[in-house]
Design goal:
Length: about 400
């Protein structure tokens, strides 16, 4: 189906064409017509499926002829888990609304609020915000919700993982009851459904199968390696294959800094992006990485959330993430919307539980490779598919002893 059949007006179709999009992705084909009817929607779709455009385009269509009536009012609110994602979504809004008279703003914490307040006074149609900063601004009466028509919860599972449930509920309580609600989440887990129930009446539910996002375009494989050999292995692969670009995920801030210095000692230049670095530094590093000036970026999961880089060819899981959905999110950074990419995970014996959970989530084993000279002393067993961590098994109470191992 072409974009022109989805019910979007010419000025929006024009900017879509300018982005080089030829046909809608499956989530866009399913979600756009539903949203345009004004119905509530909950959608299971991961990063990399084109989900942002699937809600932004119809929102632009519905809002395009009006504008906010009073200062500090907004007409659409998109809640996002991190500042990076908020910036990214707003970036997309700006691109898609190039030929419209709509205004948008990304609002997040960690930076001075003065400028954001000023923008709200000047008028904002679509606000993309992280929950904490939005509540702050609401409490300070810098933003009012009485003209709000549409609410989007983007990456709802992630917002719950990050502990935003109370903030989100407080925000929802303050919104006008008569509004359209859209929820996007990588998975529609039990907790996400509970959230959906409190916020969203009678939603249409759609999902795109994970297969359409991960498997076809992304070459996924793992290398078994001892933990203490991971940095040497990474240096070896970078040099041997002359990688031009790689986004390297690691679990901790400390680990990121250490890895950068280990690479440096081997003559490899990399930078680390994590929550300990200022917003300005993070933005600059991302810009340098996107432009190709910086080739290797080491990122903690939270900091890397929302990084959207066209044609990212390679993602490395230096540590395996927990929960397993994070793996899917991460590899969704590459091979986006048809482009090809590779996702390589370094797996040591310590990562075994996380590996079991990831492979169970994928429903298949990931191809294994051993690199000459890096064969592990501690063998990594083959996963049990359908693995259920102890604390999720029937009849067992959750307690800290049973918590699945977090890869460090
Ligand atoms: P998202 O899932 O929203 O993070 O989007 C993933 C990537 O796909 C982004 O880089 C978009 O620019 C791109 N994209 C979105 N829709 C399309 C489309 N219909 N055709 C090609 N690329 C797209």
């Amino acid at each position: 189906m072409p974009f022109s059949k989805l019910g979007l007006s010419d000025s929006i179709l024009k900017s879509v064409a300018e982005q080089g999009y030829k046909t809608p992705t499956p989530i866009q084909e399913k979600a756009i017509p539903v949203i345009l009817t004004g119905k509530n929607l909950i959608a299971a779709a991961q990063t990399g499926t084109g989900k942002t455009a699937s809600f932004v385009l119809p929102i632009l269509e519905m809002l395009r002829e009006g504008q906010t009536q009073r200062k500090k009012r907004i007409r659409a609110l998109i809640l996002a888990p991190t500042r990076e994602l908020a910036v990214q979504v707003e970036d997309n809004i700006a691109k898609y609304s190039k030929h419209l008279n709509l205004t948008s703003l990304a609002m997040y914490g960690g930076v001075d609020a003065k400028q954001q307040k000023q923008r709200l006074i000047e008028g904002v149609d679509i606000l993309v915000a992280t929950p904490g900063r939005l509540l702050d601004m609401y409490t300070q009466r810098a933003v009012h919700f009485d003209e709000l028509e549409i609410l989007v919860l983007d990456e709802a599972d992630r917002m719950l993982d990050m502990g935003f449930i109370e903030d989100i509920n407080k925000i929802i309580e303050r919104l006008p009851a008569d509004r359209q609600n859209l929820l996007f989440s990588a998975t529609l887990s039990k907790q996400v459904r509970v959230l959906a129930k409190t916020a969203i009446d009678n939603p249409v539910e759609i999902s795109v199968s994970p297969d359409t996002t991960t498997t076809p375009q992304i070459d996924q494989w793992l290398i078994t390696v001892d933990k203490d050999k991971k940095s040497a292995l990474l240096s070896h692969l970078i040099k041997e294959n002359q990688w031009d670009q790689a986004l390297i995920f690691i679990e901790t801030k400390h680990g990121a800094a250490k890895l950068v210095s280990q690479l440096e000692k081997r003559g490899i230049k990399a930078e680390a992006i994590h929550s300990g670095r200022s917003q300005e530094v993070r933005a600059q590093l991302l810009a340098d990485f996107k432009s190709g000036k910086l080739q290797l970026l080491v990122a903690t999961g939270v900091a890397a959330r929302g990084i959207d880089i066209e044609d990212l060819t390679r993602v490395i899981n230096y540590d395996l993430p927990y929960p397993p959905e994070d793996y899917v999110h991460r590899i969704g950074r590459t091979g986006r919307a048809g482009a090809s990419g590779e996702a390589i995970s370094f797996v040591s014996k310590d990562d075994f539980k996380n590996l079991c959970m990831i492979e169970s989530r994928l429903g298949h084993l990931i191809t294994r490779k051993e690199i000459e000279g890096f064969a592990p002393r501690k063998e990594v067993p083959i996963s049990i598919l359908n693995y259920v961590p102890k604390n999720k098994r029937n009849g067992e109470r959750q307690n800290s002893k049973n918590k699945p191992a977090k890869a460090k």
